[in-house]
Write a structure and sequence with these properties.
InterPro entries: Alpha/beta-hydrolase_catalytic
Shape: globular
Order of helices and strands: HHHHHEHEHEHEHHEHEEHHHH
Radius of gyration: 25 Å
Strand order of the largest sheet: 1-3-2-4-5-7-6
Keywords: Membrane, Transmembrane, Transmembrane helix
Number of strands: 7
Distance between the termini: 57 Å
Pfam families: Abhydrolase_9
Low-confidence stretches: 6-15, 77-100
Strand content: 5-15%
Mean pLDDT: 88
Length: about 450
């Protein structure tokens, strides 16, 4: 039998079996076309995955014993074909990166002008220009809360003006230079004189979630500062290779802040925040867990939707003695222990980003036990199937966040509905039930207003 025929026969058989078993419930809703195409695509991929090595392996053996057929008449031809494939993959990735990178530099017209507020980066007194902030940085500093926001939620007068520092990846050529710029901005704005300093690790695009910062600024009545240092402009799925340099950035920033505070009598509470890839990055910057948190004098850390895997599991275990993991605000104990948890993990039971990992290919995960018990938003009829569950969860990650501005959800990788209560608890912020209710409503107002500004930009570009 020809190598190609042998490979095709094996591939079609395996692909047919996988396709037949690939229909079933998933963690998050998929578009109808995707759900219809999924069995065909998975079956096709399986067919190719089996057919190619079987056919190619047979061809190589034939070539090695002098019975090769065109185009694989020799082992050298095989090496050449593989080399062409590798080069094509590298070139393709670079083309995608070159296409996406400029998007992170394009400023929304609504956020393109330097802020009049000198307590944020990009203002007239700042060493960082608007162009160096990038799109996400400009949105972040342009969304700082004001006195009216504080009064609306707390019913009290502000005690200070909040500080927001953002250093984009284009602001300097090296990690050291970007961190030095951040420290200069923190000193310039008087950030170290605030009672709270939040250090946030951004996502791959530079996106820094304003919501937890809004909460901190409002509930501390402006007595807070926040700092973000970027490391890239690409989406998180293309930024996984930058986790090391991103963690190095966070580590150097933490070290610099520690050294700065050692010379001061008054020191702010240091708070950490990371979401999605930002959480993975910040956890990588403090790999010893509580030991590192002690070293940097961290009062509290909130990590949201951390991508799953062995590293994340190990970090959870490392922090287990002083951490709490919740799926939603209702899981926060009514009475916390006298020694409050310092580390807070907010992770939805049904978040594909948290649940996805390579081990799903061959190992039943704890969240899909044989007895049928399920966490929130994990379908009761969902079962683990070797290989298939891995592909399902991978596709789930692509549709894990379906955001409608102002319509906060607690589903998949969307944590907006949880952040008000969980951030308040994690950072031990003052808020009675009335204030908490007003905060929830106001966070939705803030997000909707921001989305409307961005939407105006999008309409103008059409």
């Amino acid at each position: 039998m020809l190598p190609s025929a042998l490979g095709a026969a094996a591939g079609v058989s395996a692909g047919g079996v996988i396709a037949a078993g690939s229909r079933g419930p998933t963690l998050v809703p998929w578009p109808a076309k995707v759900r219809t195409a999924f069995p065909i695509v998975v079956g096709g991929l399986t067919c190719s995955a089996v057919a190619l090595p079987v056919g190619l392996g047979t061809a190589v053996v034939a070539a090695a014993i002098g019975r090769g057929r065109w185009p694989v008449k020799s082992v050298a031809a095989v090496v050449g074909m593989v080399g062409v494939g590798v080069v094509a993959g590298v070139v393709g990735r670079r083309l995608v990166e070159q296409k996406l990178t400029p998007n992170g530099r394009d400023l929304d017209p609504a956020y393109a002008q330097p802020p009049l507020n000198n307590l944020v980066s990009g203002s007239a007194e700042s060493a960082v220009t608007m162009a160096e902030l990038g799109r996400e940085g400009a949105r972040f500093v342009g969304s700082v809360t004001g006195a009216d926001d504080i009064r609306e939620v707390t019913g009290l007068e502000p005690v200070a003006e909040p500080v927001r520092v953002f250093i984009g990846v284009d602001a300097a050529a090296t990690v050291e230079q970007r961190v030095a710029l951040a420290m200069s901005e923190l000193r310039r704005t008087g950030a170290f004189d605030r009672s709270n300093l939040l250090i946030q690790a951004p996502a791959g695009t530079g996106f820094a979630n304003s919501t937890p910062v809004d909460i901190l600024e409002i509930l501390t009545r402006g007595d807070s500062a926040s700092v973000v240092v970027g490391y890239g402009l690409l989406p998180s799925f293309l930024s996984l290779g930058k986790v090391a340099i991103a963690a190095q950035t966070q580590k150097l920033l933490l070290e610099s802040i520690r050294n700065e505070l050692a010379t001061r009598n008054k020191r702010p509470r240091l708070l950490l925040y990371g979401e999605s890839l930002g959480a993975k990055v910040q956890e990588a910057a403090v790999p010893a867990g509580p030991i590192d948190l002690d070293y940097y004098n961290i009062a509290a850390a909130l990590w949201v939707g951390t991508p799953g895997g062995k590293v994340a599991d190990g970090f959870h275990a490392l922090c287990s003695q002083e951490s709490i993991t919740v799926d939603r605000p209702e899981e926060i104990p009514a009475v916390l222990p006298a020694t409050r948890p310092r580390v807070w993990f907010l992770e939805h039971d049904g978040d594909p980003v948290v649940r996805f990992r390579p081990a799903l290919i061959s190992t039943r995960p704890a969240w899909l036990p044989l007895d049928g018990t399920r966490g929130r938003n994990i379908p009761e009829s969902m079962t683990w199937r070797p290989g298939i569950t891995y592909f399902q969860s991978f596709v789930d990650t692509m549709f894990a966040t379906n955001v409608k501005p102002g319509d906060f959800q607690s589903l998949g990788h969307d944590y907006r509905a949880d952040l008000g209560a969980v951030t308040t608890a994690a950072y031990d912020l003052p808020a009675d039930s009335v204030t908490a209710a007003r905060l929830e409503g106001h966070l939705r107002v803030l997000e909707t207003a921001k989305a409307e500004l961005i939407a105006q930009t999008d309409k103008g570009a059409q």
